[in-house]
Amino acid sequence: MVTNINDVSTADIVYCPRSLAQIFSNFYITPEEKKVLHVKGVYCDKKGQNFGDHYYDRLRDEFSEKQLNIKIPIALKTKLRDGRPYILEGYIDRTTESRLYKELNVYLTFVVTNLISEEAPVVDASEHEKIEVIRARTKKSSQNIDTIIGKNFSGGRKPNIVLIKGRTAVIGEDILGALGEYRAAYTITEKLISMTNTDEIMNTLVELDDAGSFDFITLSRGGGQGVDVFEDIGIAKTIIAMQTPVVTAIGHADDHTFVQLVADMSFNTPADFGNHLKLLAKDFMQAEKDKIDFTQKEQQYMKRIGDLESANQELQKAYAARISTAEKNNQEFQKTFAARIGEAERNNQELQRLNDELRQRPLQTVVQASEDSIDKKSFIIGGLIAAILATVLILLVRYIM
Predict the structure, then answer these.
(1) What is the per-residue pLDDT across 340-372, written as a single tens digit (0 to 9) for each?
(2) What class, spelled out in words, does domain 125-268 have in CATH?
(3) Over the stretch 305-332, which tens digit does the pLDDT of each residue have?
(4) Phi/psi zone of residue 2: left (φ > 0), alpha (ψ -120 to 50 degrees), beta?
(5) Which one of 178, 220, 257, 391 is least enclosed by Cβ atoms within 10 Å?
(6) What is the fold of 5-118?
(7) What is the pLDDT of residue 400?
């Protein structure tokens, strides 16, 4: 086996990460070790820290998700772009690690020594088909699930949802558990199928869509092994052709499948879907409560306005009655005052007449007559003044009342 990398020539064979992994996993010692190799793959920048004069990144296979650890010098890293395919030159550094139960693990690192070339991205037939599916999806308008649920609530109806899940799955508990007390706000039907069988998934979707009795259909399952079934283009095409809206609640937060791209709405996990339904129901119920409270307050306000208007009318009636009474009292006062004035004028004329008589009589007669007249007139005037004061007092008391 060659131990000095300078003693070997550059190989003509171009490997990929998957082929290297198969080679080194099947042999303890391989001819490729410590040889200069050319490896082609998509560069994945991990944006990690600098280890002196190099970085540790990844090189991904173009046709699978297999990745190879690469150790790359700083000078070469600056020439690479994340997500672009390259042919890199270097050699394999293999390390082993013994863990529990004497398990021997082999770790491969491709030590990059040179950049051979930047390649054009390769898109296989399935990727072309996915692109066509995405184009078809963009031509179909999405149906807003929140709007559909809101219209049902506003119309006094429960949204009718069918939940497609695995026969042995427990994700239904995640959704219903997240709904909690708001579970009663929805009609939820569970459809149990094999979530690893693409044909059964597609047939079930078509069957439920043809039934036409559901507001929307939900594809739900947990993460882990088998979630890649939702990369199937056939399922995606089926969803695009459906009339009933489709919601996906698949996997964990970091699972992103092709089917999720074509659904009308997608949630990271089944629990997220349940929480979303809960918030919609909660918000609607709160809005209805606020609406009822507003209506009650509006009714109380209008009643208060009616009471104030009635009280105002009563006050206006009382005020008008008081004005009428005051006007009548004033008229009576005017009449009484005019009568008293007339009487006072007559008394004044009588006094004038007596004065004239006194001037024509002898002094004694005049004196006697004057005394009698004065006593008589004093009595009359005193009575007149008393009568006037009494009248004024009565009028004042009436006016005040």
Answers:
(1) 888 888 888 888 888 888 777 665 554 565 566
(2) alpha beta
(3) 888 888 888 888 888 888 888 888 888 8
(4) beta
(5) 391
(6) OB fold (Dihydrolipoamide Acetyltransferase, E2P) (2.40.50)
(7) 59
Q: Report the pLDDT value the prediction gives residue 399, as an integer from 0 to 100.
A: 58
Q: Name the token pair of 232.
A: 């199937």
Domain boundaries, the chain: 5-118, 125-268, 293-400
The predicted pLDDT at position 10 comes to: 44
The single-letter code of the amino acid at 91 is Y
pLDDT at residue 108 tops 80? yes
> How many beta carbons lie within 10 A of that of residue 1, not counting itself?
8
**In this structure, how many other beta carbons lie within 10 angstroms of the beta carbon of residue 182?**
17
Q: What is the 3-state secondary structure (H, E, C) of the chain?
A: CCCCHHHCCCCCCEECHHHHHHHHHHCCCCCCCCCCEEEEEEEECCCCCCECCEEEEEEECCCCCCEEEEEEEHHHHCCCCCCCEEEEEEEEEEEEEECHHHCEEEEEEEEEEEEEEECCCCCCHHHHHHHHHHHHHHHCCCCCHHHHHHHHHHCCCCCEEEEEEECCCCHHHHHHHHHHHHHHHCEEEEEEECCCCHHHHHHHHHHHHHHCCCCEEEEEECCCCCHHHHHCHHHHHHHHHCCCCEEEEECCCCCCCHHHHHCCEEECCHHHHHHHHHHHHHHHHHHHHHHHHHHHHHHHHHHHHHHHHHHHHHHHHHHHHHHHHHHHHHHHHHHHHHHHHHHHHHHHHHHHHHHHHHHHCCHHHHHHHHHHHHHHHHHHHHHHHHHHHHHHHHHHHHHHC
- Please, which residues bridge with residue 160 across strands? 187
Q: Is the pTM of this model over 0.70?
A: no
